[in-house]
From TrEMBL:
Gene3D superfamilies according to UniProt: 1.10.150.530, Aldolase class I (3.20.20.70)
Swiss-Prot/TrEMBL GO biological process terms: methylation
Subcellular location: Cytoplasm
One Pfam family hit: Radical_SAM
Co-factor binding details: Binds 1 [4Fe-4S] cluster. The cluster is coordinated with 3 cysteines and an exchangeable S-adenosyl-L-methionine.
Name of the top EC class for this enzyme: transferase
PROSITE patterns reported for this sequence: RADICAL_SAM (PS51918)
Family the UniProt entry places it in: Belongs to the radical SAM superfamily. RlmN family.
Alphabetical UniProt keywords: 4Fe-4S, Cytoplasm, Disulfide bond, Iron, Iron-sulfur, Metal-binding, Methyltransferase, rRNA processing, S-adenosyl-L-methionine, Transferase, tRNA processing
Record-given protein name: Dual-specificity RNA methyltransferase RlmN
């Protein structure tokens, strides 16, 4: 697999066939599913109906066996089972935090791994979804950024993260009533806009009104500022936009986020101003990790307000207490300074809640995701979690938000 340099779109590895070479239909869009069903010899006049039925069972009911598709005739079910599979990736490890957060280490057919995280809250349940194995951006404060980029995830592998979470949470019996995964954020491993086509296809499957039925208003895509694809995202996918800003001066942002050397602050903020569908009722979210002595001064807070006003952005700022990970050179800003930063931005007329860290005890908080090819012992994982918790143990701040957006 060729690893591309920073700023270049990675190549998707070809599908590895199952041992029996049956086609895994999980992750096919409607047209692909229809073509596959027609190809195996289903009567032409039945293809449209069978496609609708299979789609419903796949994405609305979450079944993994054709035998469960009870409104399809036995002979057609047998034909489907002869040629197709419905296969989820393997969950290598599921970790459950004391605060209810769940982290899934998922292994795909080629042996590569990525992580997804479910964060429960009082008024919602958010699934943080990965778009790549590794990442090409090398942001210095992000644990995922220490990994090399391996490859893009396919649309099927992105959709599978939603399916796995719903399996674990027991959501399929009542697919749309009392659901626990109410929101998705494309904020896991990788840069979603460097995997645009697969992310778009996956989200269209998730948003389909006859399947999972998740509204585009409940989906947020986070980007580090891949300017050429930002407008395209608004036009073609139409979900909420979050931008990993993390600094208000080009020199600082370039130091901690190398992508800024390619797409600087001015370009990124202009792209935000032009994002289709952004307005006061549907604001752009700026993610801002609070790094002690790096980006957390009073002057930084005032400059943040100035920039948002300059570009007339309908925006809010999520202040993220830095979540440490083993080997990092950064420290979380003092809580008092985070609170002062929040107050200064609020005084400028811009919402700036402080995100309550979630899942730190299982290394599932923002910026902590990193899959490992080698298996770690439970003792090693426990030591890492203890180190992370000890580094940030303190009281909670005000202006607190438990939401990701």
């Amino acid at each position: 697999m060729q690893i591309t340099p920073n700023g270049q779109e990675p190549i998707v590895s070809p599908r590895i066939p199952a041992a029996d070479d049956k086609l895994n239909i999980l992750g096919l869009d409607r047209d692909e599913l229809k073509a596959a069903i027609a190809e195996i010899g289903v009567a032409e006049k039945q293809v449209r109906m069978r496609t609708t039925q299979v789609w419903h069972w796949l994405y609305h009911r979450g079944v993994s066996s054709f035998d469960d598709m009870t409104n399809i005739s036995k002979d057609v079910r047998a034909k489907l089972a002869e040629h197709f599979t419905i296969t989820r990736p393997e969950i290598v490890e599921a970790q459950y935090s004391n605060d209810g957060t769940r982290k899934y280490l998922i292994r795909f057919a080629d042996g590569n791994e990525a992580e997804a995280v479910y964060i429960p809250e009082e008024d919602r349940g958010t699934l943080c979804v990965s778009s790549q194995v590794g990442c090409t951006l090398n942001c210095k404060f992000c644990h995922t950024g220490t990994m090399r980029l391996v490859r893009n995830l396919t649309a099927a592998e992105i959709v599978a993260q939603m399916m796995i979470a719903r399996d674990d949470l027991g959501e399929w019996e009542n697919p749309t009533e009392g659901r626990r995964v109410t929101n998705i954020v494309m904020m896991g491993m990788g840069e979603p806009l460097y995997n645009f086509d697969n992310v778009k296809k996956a989200l269209e499957i998730i948003m389909d009104e006859e399947g999972i039925q998740l509204s585009r208003r409940r989906i947020t895509l986070s980007t580090s500022g891949v300017v050429p694809h930002m407008e395209r995202c608004g036009k073609e996918i139409g979900v909420n936009l979050a931008v990993s800003l993390h600094a208000v001066r080009d020199d600082v942002r370039s130091e901690i986020m190398p992508i800024n050397k390619k797409y600087g602050l001015e370009e990124v903020l202009k792209a935000c101003a032009n994002y289709p569908g952004a307005h006061n009722a549907r604001r752009i979210t700026f993610e801002y990790a609070m790094l002690k002595g790096v980006n957390d001064s009073d002057a930084d807070a005032r400059e943040l307000v100035r920039l948002i006003r300059k570009y007339k952005l309908p925006a809010k700022v999520n202040l993220i207490p830095f979540n440490p990970w083993p080997g990092t050179d950064y420290e979380c800003s003092d809580w008092g300074q985070i609170q002062r930063f929040s107050d200064l931005v609020y005084e400028g007329g811009i919402s700036a809640p402080i995100r309550t860290p979630r899942g730190r005890d299982i290394m599932a908080a923002c910026g902590q995701l990193k899959s490992a090819s080698e298996k770690k012992s439970k003792a090693a994982l426990a030591r890492e979690a203890e180190a992370a918790a000890a580094a940030t143990a303190t009281t909670e701040p005000h202006h607190t938000s438990t939401g990701l957006t």
